[in-house]
Design a protein that fits this description.
Blueprint lengths: L4 E6 L2 E2 L4 E7 L9 E4 L2 E3 L1 E4 L3 E5 L7 E6 L6 E9 L1 E5 L8 E2 L5 E4 L12 E4 L5 E5 L5 E6 L5 E5 L5 E4 L5 E5 L5 E6 L5 E5 L3 E5 L5 E6 L8 E4 L5 E4 L7 E6 L5 E8 L5 E3 L5 E7 L2 E7 L5 E6 L3 E6 L6 E6 L2 E6 L14
Parallel strand pairs: 2-9
Antiparallel strand pairs: 1-3, 3-7, 4-5, 4-8, 6-7, 8-9, 10-33, 11-12, 12-13, 13-14, 15-16, 16-17, 17-18, 19-20, 20-21, 21-22, 23-24, 24-25, 25-26, 27-28, 28-29, 29-30, 31-32, 32-33
Length: 345
């Protein structure tokens, strides 16, 4: 019988509760189901075949080597570690990407159910991951974005407004009558775009005038917006289809499909190499899907209930991941993940 060998992981990063694949040869000979451990912690095996074992990252797992053991032999160590995201805040309710302020604090929402007025609606998380209440003035805050001056803007899916948030947490209405306002993003000219999940993308110029920029199919949850390095606006939003698209909108408002085939796509952001990362499911894998500029897609972080993500500023790379009740920190790029060179400006 050939000797068992373990030579890879898919993906190389996960949240606790996410599923990972162990790739190899002769992984499931006759006998008991193999054992899998992540940095010494037992990981339940979900599926076993000779070339693939699927295992679930246990709660409390930390980053470290992945190994498996057969009843008839010693542990087999994979050549790669699994990077496990670290919990940094919980008891929240993000419905979009978190956002970094100019000082490097993370802003996140406690959005609540439709019409629910939570005691605190916006929190700030400092570099030591100390969570502090910031504002309670917005009902159902949904999209978050900072303008060039470092001022936060937040949409409300409850009243269809976008609010300007001052440093002391007080708010003022910046724009209103925007339908079910969800995702927001600023372009290179500091003009604001707002997704109304009923099917409209609004543009608000620097004088505060509102225009219909583009029209899409309605979303059953929310639109999420991000500008790409090509200065096009990219939009996600789960629909009644199980084969959803990422839409790409030109500066003149022309809509085209950039990628199709995702399940419940939500928050999205671009990495330094021009890859689009999005919280979604793809070909049976749930987590963060990375789509290259050429349109190739793969799951790069496994995890459940993800709704958004944001890249940390500065020299220390990190990816902040938002689930529907918590925030996690993950080293990025994941050690061992091969990304193309950063393009020249």
């Amino acid at each position: 019988m050939p000797s068992a060998s373990l030579h890879g992981l898919d993906p190389l990063a996960a949240l606790p509760g996410g599923d990972i694949g162990l790739l190899g040869e002769s992984l499931f000979p006759p006998g008991p189901v193999p054992e899998v451990r992540i940095a010494g912690a037992a990981a339940p095996v979900l599926l076993a075949s000779n070339r693939l074992l699927m295992a679930r990252v246990p709660e409390g797992a930390v980053s470290g080597p992945v190994e498996m053991a057969l009843a008839s032999g010693p542990p087999l160590l994979s050549p790669l570690n699994l990077e496990v995201a670290v919990l940094i805040a919980e008891n929240l309710h993000p419905v979009c990407n978190p956002a970094f302020d100019p000082e490097g604090n993370i802003v996140v929402t406690l959005s609540g159910s439709r019409g629910q007025k939570t005691p605190v609606s916006l929190f700030r998380l400092d570099a030591n991951y100390s969570l502090k209440a910031w504002s309670s003035a917005i009902t159902n805050p949904s999209g978050l974005a900072f303008d060039r001056s470092g001022t936060l803007f937040a949409s409300s899916r409850f009243d269809g407004s976008v609010y300007r948030v001052a440093a002391n947490g007080t708010t003022s209405v910046y724009a209103e009558s925007l339908g079910v306002a969800t995702g927001i993003a600023f372009d290179q000219n500091d003009e604001l775009y707002v997704g109304d999940r009923s099917g409209t993308i609004f543009k608000i110029d620097r004088e505060g005038k509102t225009f219909v920029f583009a029209t899409l199919e309605p979303s059953i949850a929310a639109y999420h917006l991000a500008f790409g390095p090509d200065r096009f606006l990219y939009v996600s939003g789960p629909s009644t289809s199980s084969y959803d698209a990422i839409w790409r909108i030109s500066p003149t408002g022309v809509v085209e499909s950039f990628f199709r085939g995702l399940g419940r796509p939500q928050g999205l952001a671009f990495d330094a190499q021009g890859g689009l990362l999005i919280a979604a499911s793809y070909r049976g894998r749930r987590g963060i899907i990375r789509i290259t500029p050429a349109g190739d897609a793969a799951c790069v972080v496994s995890g459940n209930n993800l709704v958004g993500l944001a890249f940390s500023p500065g020299a220390r790379p990190a990816l902040i991941l938002a689930t529907n009740n918590a925030l996690y920190n993950l080293a990025w790029p994941t050690p061992g993940l091969s990304l193309p060179p950063q393009p020249r400006a």
